[in-house]
Design brief:
Blueprint lengths: L1 H86 L4 E2 L5 E2 L5 H7 L20
Antiparallel strand pairs: 1-2
């Protein structure tokens, strides 16, 4: 009987060991599954980040294009304003109500009159020797 009990105990211990091994394999399988899921999530986040980066690149290109367009328009406005300030706002009315489109008389008007400036004092630095 003792021999029979020892055999049954040995079978029980082997079964318990096999059960423990199966349990550890199951836990390892669960860990592998968790890591696989984490890797899939990380891959999905990487793909999302890549899409966001692509969208930011496109937005940057659009922004640069807009900046170039605005620079061009600003330059045009500055040129037009400068011309307007120094040349008048277009054609000069000729005697009799007709327009003088080529501004031929402008040079004569400038040459025949005095040049008036807004300077109210000397136009150069005044030093002690200049005031004597």
């Amino acid at each position: 009987m003792r021999k029979e009990a020892e055999v049954k105990l040995s079978i029980f211990e082997d079964a318990k060991s096999a059960f423990d091994t199966t349990e550890m394999v199951g836990e390892a399988g669960s860990e592998v599954e968790r890591r696989r899921m984490a890797a899939l999530a990380a891959g999905s986040q990487f793909i999302d980040a890549k899409r966001i980066l692509k969208a930011l690149e496109q937005a940057g290109e659009v922004a640069l294009s807009l900046i170039e367009s605005l620079k061009h328009k600003a330059t045009s406005v500055v040129v037009a304003t400068t011309k307007s300030m120094f040349m008048g706002c277009g054609s000069v009315p000729a005697p009799g109500g007709q327009q003088d489109d080529n501004n031929a008389g402008e040079d004569q008007k400038l040459d025949s009159g005095h040049l008036h400036t807004r300077a109210s004092g000397p136009t150069h630095a005044v030093g002690p020797t200049d005031q004597q």
